Task: structure prediction
Amino acid sequence: MEIANAVVMAQRFLSPRLAAASLVVDATAGNGKDTLFLAGNIPHAAVVLAFDIQQQALSKTHEILTKYGLEHKVRLILDSHAHITKYINQPVDAAMFNLGYLPGGDHAVSTYPDATIEAISHTLPLLRTGGIVTIVAYPGYDHGRLECQVVHKYLAGLSQNQFAVACWSMVNQKNSPPVLYIIEKIGSE
Ligand code: SAM
Result:
């Protein structure tokens, strides 16, 4: 396997789990690339729930899904990922978080540590044993650095009997490259 950027590495970790998935989550739909990846790699009858707080992001996501004929596999939700339990009451096979702001959008409308931690802490109990969550964080700017630190601290405190948590990033790139966290549910308690 070749080394790639954090977003591509997230997809590589997720890919093998998607073939038998029923329900997967894109917690930050943005421009729809991750949603498209999920929708294109799950079985015919499986569903992606894709969250974003910006209608602009969900419209972009709908547009790209329609272009590839995959819109029927995705439910778009205009709400914070912190409210995930309002929409899901069955086991989740995989979830992606791609933190930060909408590329090409308003940089002030970004993920924030409180809602991010709330969303992660609500998503992990929904995860099926063997399921994974990927989180790409961006420590290359002030707000992103703080969010990355908060996420790291939260994940480092998870029970090692219940979760395997890994962290991946390029170490020879300038300007604090993105960090990928991978969380696998390995036990129920
Ligand atoms: N996954 C996207 C893609 O493939 O294009 C990129 C996501 S972008 C880096 C981050 C997105 O998170 C933005 O569109 C932003 O509106 C969204 N966001 C920020 N806070 C959120 C929240 N509390 N709940 C859901 N989405 C949120």
Notes: The chain has a mean pLDDT of 95. The chain has one domain: 6-185. Strands lie at 23-26, 47-52, 74-78, 92-98, 127-137, 163-168, 179-185. The radius of gyration is 15 Å.
